[in-house]
Amino acid sequence: MAAVDDLQFEEFGDAATSVAANPDATTVSIEDPGETPKHQTGPLRGSGREEDDELLGNDDSDKTELLAGQKKSSPFWTFEYYQTFFDVDTYQVFDRIKGSLLPIPGKNFVRLYIRSNPDLYGPFWICATLVFAIAISGNLSNFLIHLGEKTYHYVPEFRKVSIAATIIYAYAWLVPLALWGFLMWRNSKVMNIVSYSFLEIVCVYGYSLFIYIPTAILWIIPQKAVRWILVMIALGISGSVLAMTFWPAVREDNRRVALATIMTIVLLHMLLSVGCLAYFFDAPEMDHLPTTTAIPNQTVAAAKSS
Amino acid sequence: MAEAEESPGDPGTASPRPLMRDLKAVGKKFMHVLYPRKSNTLLRDWDLWGPLILCVTLALMLQRDSADSEKDGGPQFAEVFVIVWFGAVTITLNSKLLGGNISFFQSLCVLGYCILPLTVAMLICRLVLLAGPGPINFMVRLFVVIVMFAWSIVASTAFLADSQPPNRRALAVYPVFLFYFVISWMILTFTPQ
Questions:
Q1: Residue B21 within a domain
Q2: In 3-state terms, chain B is what percent helix, strand and coil (to 5)?
Q3: Are A83 and B97 in contact (CB under 8 A)?
Q4: Inter-chain contact B181–A132, Cβ cutoff 8 Å?
Q5: Which parts of the sequence belong to the Yip1 domain (chain A) (predicted)?
Q6: How confident is the model at residue A27 (pLDDT cuts 50, 70, 90)?
Q7: Pairs from A98-105 (Cβ < 8 Å, separation ≥ 24)
Q8: pLDDT at A19
Q9: Which of A82, A86, A125 sits opposite B175 (nearest CB)?
Q10: Where are the alpha helices (DSSP H) in A146-254?
């Protein structure tokens, strides 16, 4: 019965009101078929809650949902199964990266860009790039800060690459796992309209880490104020992407639980960036520059006088 | 004595293979890397001897000189080895998952052989470092590494890009860029004790 209704809505393309009704009804029918009758009888838009689905307005979402259902049919021990997670084109990856950099209020990253086609390409290679960006930038920044010190011998600090890799990949996989488990548990208690699959959550987290790549490179600048401003900007952008993605998933819930979930997400994100800044980048001492010229003179003077 | 027909990668045949023939095959592939043309030789007759020689040479040159009192230094021999091979395998898997029609060992072969310019850069850097540290020294090394890095990228892209559908070419080439960038960084930051 739901299939027949969807087909009917597909045919409506011309009348203005049915176009207005289309996004609402079609997109809600994806999330929860039980909701469809309620929306058919109720008012068209602005009904009660603000739906971010109405901003989508695409009528091939049904098609993608059907296709998505047919896609992952290979058993998990075949190579084709994993190929379904890399079924993205270049422009799609760029679009998703762009979406993670420009959080627009009301637009849900998962709904707008991922649309039941979560990929593992983005999260994996963004994390890999971030690992090397942090390690290399940290090394370069420490070199520039200690340049001129007599006692400093430059080392490439190669161990830090493995530490960075462990931290970043653990964050990108374990936090989504915990969040997914938590959302599933809450879903069993409260009927949520929106639920995300584990891979979609991994995808959001992976793409939201993209902003930290230019941030890590800019952290080379040895000014404390600049670094903290960068932390704030990056946290603002990626935190808001995450918050806007997960708010629809928890807003049905108890107010306190919903707010606590969003706060925890943002807090963990902040811990990651501040932790990386503290561990990989030495603090630039404010009085560093004068002493590099003063100390050699003093030691030379002391040597001459003694 | 007739030499037995063998497929690439066949570990041992009944009749003894002349060493010169293998060396010539490896040498021919080196020339293909140094002057990259659209040719299928690297792809058709893949072998992993060349990449192994290059990887061992690079790792030997990159490892720390001292018996290691210093703890956060440059990479050890095993670390370089693991990075090169693990990186090449990851890029190959990525390329295949994106739908490329290149075989696993062919891709490893191409990626391994295209480390040749960077190995040459390492040799030059070590020679230049004998002249003593200094900013001019660093600029020379930086220039050499950048040129060789670009050469590696061009060489490997010439072989690998065709195996991908055009709407995913950039997705397959970017990890190659990252791979050679990391190796270039290791070469550039090499400091003798």
A1: no
A2: 70, 0, 30
A3: yes
A4: yes
A5: 101-273
A6: very low
A7: A99/A207, A99/A241, A100/A207, A100/A208, A100/A210, A100/A211, A100/A237, A100/A238, A100/A241, A101/A210, A101/A211, A101/A237, A103/A237, A103/A240, A103/A241, A103/A244, A105/A244
A8: 44
A9: A125
A10: 159-189, 198-208, 212-218, 224-250
Nearest Cα neighbor of A86 from A128, A126, A117 is A117
Report helix, strand or coil for B72. Answer: coil
Pick from A90, A157, A159: CB nearest B167: A90
Q: Does B104 touch chain A (CB under 8 A)?
A: no
Asked if residue B41 belongs to a domain, the reply is no
Q: CA-to-CA distance for B110 and B112, rounded, in angstroms?
A: 5
pLDDT at A95: 87
Record the pTM. 0.75
- Domains in chain A, number: 1
**Nearest CB to A132: which of B71, B170, B178?**
B178
Q: Would you state the structure tokens that stand for residue A60, as one six-digit string?
A: 């091939």
Reported as a single tens digit per residue, the pLDDT across A184-236 is: 888 888 776 677 888 889 999 999 999 999 999 999 988 899 999 999 999 99
Q: Are A17 and A38 in contact (CB under 8 A)?
A: no
Q: Does some domain include residue B169?
A: yes
**Domain ranges, residue A234:** 84-281
Q: Is A79 on the interface with B (CB under 8 A)?
A: yes
Whether residue A5 is contained in a domain is answered as no
Best B189, B191, B193 member to test A by mutation, with max A CBs in 10 Å, is B189
Q: Tell me how many domains chain B contains.
A: 1
Asked whether the beta carbons of residue B169 and residue A90 sit closer than 8 angstroms, the reply is yes
Q: What is the pLDDT of residues A132-157, one digit of tens each?
A: 999 999 988 888 888 877 777 777 77
Largest CA distance in chain B: 59
In the predicted structure, residue A158 carries a pLDDT above the cut 70: yes
- Contact flag A155-B70 (C-beta cutoff 8 Å): yes
Residue A71 lies in a domain: no
Residue B26 in any domain: the answer is no
Question: A185 at the B interface (CB within 8 A)?
Answer: no
Contact B111, B176 (CB under 8 A): yes
Identify whether A250 is part of a domain: yes
State which residues form the domain around B133.
Answer: 46-61+75-189
CB contact under 8 A, A157 and B167: no
Contact A83 B99 (CB under 8 A): yes
| A74 found inside a domain | no
Nearest to B177 by CA among B160, B145, B153, B146: B153
Say if residue A107's pLDDT is above 90. Answer: no
